[in-house]
């Protein structure tokens, strides 16, 4: 039931997206945004969304989209490598199927069970000019590698005065609740990484976004942590173009136009927020929904422009509310839009407890919690 | 009557004289018989940088029958957990231990409740061995109040404070440095007790393990690191993940012992030896050569990375429960029927526990906020959008 609903929602979303894209392309031509140049002087990157429309598209789910992106990445760059625990046979979520067969064991290989080793190794590989695509099996296990990411990857270019860098490093990890994951298969650790200048944190919301964003991340000349919403691996199905295309990083997307309140989110949470928006519509509240896509460096201008239009903002994420990335967005918006705000910034997030086992439905920021917060904010 | 018993026992490979004497003397109840029996372990031990414990083990009928019962209970419990998971009564993750029961039972026989055990997520049977009840196991698996962790931990987080079982850890390898900390405390408090820190062959490649080894060796901690080598780290065979799958040698300057983990008597002998060693000389590694019949967890069929022949082969040649059964029968400590009756009893116990656990309620929703911090402290969210936050301070 939920699956059918979700596909229908995606269809609705797609139609709206088309309208948005036309407006955005007009805006973009005015602002003249461009994607970063390639690594070590390799081929320049294409400018985003224009390419998305052309060519044929197939209806696939999230893990297939990511799989396609990895195939393209390895095909177009002979110095790209994919490694991690169990990636050889296809990975526990099937994101890496077919890669080992197609590109060989020298480029797609398993590592032992050592996250710190995997990321450290990836940094070294990237420092030699290669594109190292490391997989951490669950975001919950990324903490042994936290030191390597924060102290090594993020600061390499800075401390060597630009002599060296590990820009070719991309770390992929499935994150987020899945219904029964419990403490160690459901965490959303994006906030920890958003506190580190030097790396980028990117989270896609759907298959089409995932393929484009992942390819941008891999080709971006900075180390990137790419969190994939594991709930959507099979559940999200969308028309994804079969060719090589990229979506720009650090550009938020307004996926639903509105005038009463701005909602900001990322990843799987957006589908929940969208349902809340649709329900709020019935009560006459027009909601504007923004997908942040890149968490750092985040697109302040788009969010600010939207808040200036609506005067109210609500942020929602699965991670616990205290110290979550919503706090950063909230503080920034208050700084720039204080006099414009009609109501306090609302945050509908996970509770301040470890991710629970049987209590998951109470912990999660559900549609009803968001709906209540929308109404409370609009009627402030 | 004695003659008919003689006739029925003549088909057994046991000692005629022995069966005659035992047939004549009243055999029941055999379970209290403590006359020593000497048994040889299946394979000799191999050691690294220490002397090898003797291959001959002293045991008795009571012990063997207890081993049989305990292992049969654990086997039955794990299989019942499998069915419950498939019936969606247990959700989340469930890592089953069947095939490895000898390690839990043998270890427990060699130590006291003062010694600590800490293990990874395949902890159901270790919990039972430490004195946990079946009700606590099934209630915890199903997330009910009567569970050992009050329903808040789940399959991977079983704990038992009064028997020094420090649990059940989800993150691979994280429990080993913890185990060394426990050993330090025991040494400091002069407890004359040791800590067994269990981990798997997959975890053996974690960096924190080597940190723990160095610390324990440097400070002479009574820590026994036990590698439960079931040859597969999830789906990866040991030779694919480790340059040196001789995990007992991985300690380098820390002595090690390789043990047949499917032979409960060998495990018991090794653990006794290790405890003595650790109290005198500091850390030691035990590598238990064992096997799990199920896949890594309930979402793993367990047959994509190994052949069914391999699994059935191990089941036929090395199954720990069968080995004890053969031992009991060959030494005439019980009849085939008695053992089958024990298994039936055990099955009934498990079914009763499941029925009881099913009736048990889930924890109250206020439990979501308890125990985040020490008792009495914490933060609770109120209001429709949970924006009202109230903190209780000491």
Automatic annotation (TrEMBL), chain A:
Superkingdom, taxonomy of origin: Eukaryota
Catalytic activity: N(6)-[(R)-lipoyl]-L-lysyl-[protein] + 3-methyl-2-oxobutanoate + H(+) = N(6)-[(R)-S(8)-2-methylpropanoyldihydrolipoyl]-L-lysyl-[protein] + CO2
Family annotation (InterPro entries): THDP-binding (IPR029061), Transketo_C/PFOR_II (IPR009014), Transketolase-like_Pyr-bd (IPR005475), Transketolase_C (IPR033248)
One cellular component (GO) term of this entry: mitochondrial matrix
CDD domains for the chain: TPP_PYR_E1-PDHc-beta_like
EC code(s) of this entry: 1.2.4.4
Entry's localization field: Mitochondrion matrix
GO terms for MF: branched-chain 2-oxo acid dehydrogenase activity
Subunit description: Heterotetramer of alpha and beta chains.
Record's protein name: 3-methyl-2-oxobutanoate dehydrogenase (2-methylpropanoyl-transferring)
Species this chain originates from: Hibiscus syriacus (Rose of Sharon)
Automatic annotation (TrEMBL), chain B:
UniProt KW Kinase keyword: no
Domain Dehydrogenase E1 component positions: 69-364
Keywords tagged on the record: Oxidoreductase, Pyruvate, Thiamine pyrophosphate
Cofactor: thiamine diphosphate
Coiled-coil parts of chain: none
Catalytic activity field: N(6)-[(R)-lipoyl]-L-lysyl-[protein] + pyruvate + H(+) = N(6)-[(R)-S(8)-acetyldihydrolipoyl]-L-lysyl-[protein] + CO2
The protein's Enzyme Commission number: 1.2.4.1
GO MF, any single term: pyruvate dehydrogenase (acetyl-transferring) activity
Presence of keyword Oxidoreductase: yes
Leading EC class: oxidoreductase
Listed GO biological process terms: pyruvate decarboxylation to acetyl-CoA
Role: The pyruvate dehydrogenase complex catalyzes the overall conversion of pyruvate to acetyl-CoA and CO(2). It contains multiple copies of three enzymatic components: pyruvate dehydrogenase (E1), dihydrolipoamide acetyltransferase (E2) and lipoamide dehydrogenase (E3).
Subunit structure: Tetramer of 2 alpha and 2 beta subunits.
Listed name of the protein: Pyruvate dehydrogenase E1 component subunit alpha
Source organism (scientific name): Hibiscus syriacus
